[in-house]
């Protein structure tokens, strides 16, 4: 099941999904020589892209999710209704103010 039409759409929503967490608990891409287990019970084969998030400050405990599950998780949390879309967009903007862009424009 394709949840997002393009990688770009997915990455855009992933950023908004990450805005729900503080910086140190954000989701990152992972790539491993070892096999891992997806939090939803799938096997993540070695050398296949997956997503991971630290569960403690030291990053010793992690949750890993395969790419298919991550797309569904992000879609259900962020894009399944208009309210969660707006709230996550707002959180993202609060964390990433557009000031930098304005500054760059002004510097020119
Ligand atoms: Zn999975």
Characterise this structure.
The protein is α+β, with helices and mostly antiparallel strands. It has 4 helices and 5 strands. The protein has one domain (7-107). Helices cover 44% and strands 16% of the residues. The strands form 2 sheets. A 3-stranded antiparallel beta sheet has the order 1-4-5. Helix 1 (7-18) packs across helix 2 (67-79) and helix 1 (7-18) packs across helix 3. The mean pLDDT is 91.
Compact summary:
The chain has 108 residues and is α+β, with helices and mostly antiparallel strands.
Counting DSSP E segments of at least 2 residues, the number of strands comes to 5
Whole-number radius of gyration?
Answer: 16 Å
List the ions, cofactors and other small molecules found in this model: zinc ion
What is the strand arrangement across the widest sheet? Answer: 1-4-5
Helix/strand order? HEEEEEHHH
Helix content: 40-55%
Strand count, sense and barrel status of the largest sheet are: 3 strands, antiparallel
**Any idea how many domains?**
1
* Principal-axes shape call: globular
Query: Hey, roughly how much beta strand do the residues contain?
Result: 15-25%
Mean pLDDT over all positions: 91
Provide tags for this entry.
108 residues; alpha+beta; 4 helices; globular; binds zinc ion
């Amino acid at each position: 099941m394709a949840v997002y039409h393009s990688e770009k759409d997915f990455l855009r929503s992933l950023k908004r999904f990450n805005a729900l967490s503080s910086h140190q608990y954000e989701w990152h891409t992972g790539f491993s020589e070892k096999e891992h287990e997806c939090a939803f019970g799938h096997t993540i084969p070695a050398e296949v892209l997956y997503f991971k998030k630290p569960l403690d400050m030291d990053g010793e405990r992690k949750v890993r999710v395969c790419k298919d599950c991550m797309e569904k998780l992000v879609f259900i949390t962020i894009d399944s209704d208009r309210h969660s879309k707006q709230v996550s967009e707002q959180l993202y903007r609060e964390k990433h103010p557009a000031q930098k862009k304005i500054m760059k424009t002004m510097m020119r």
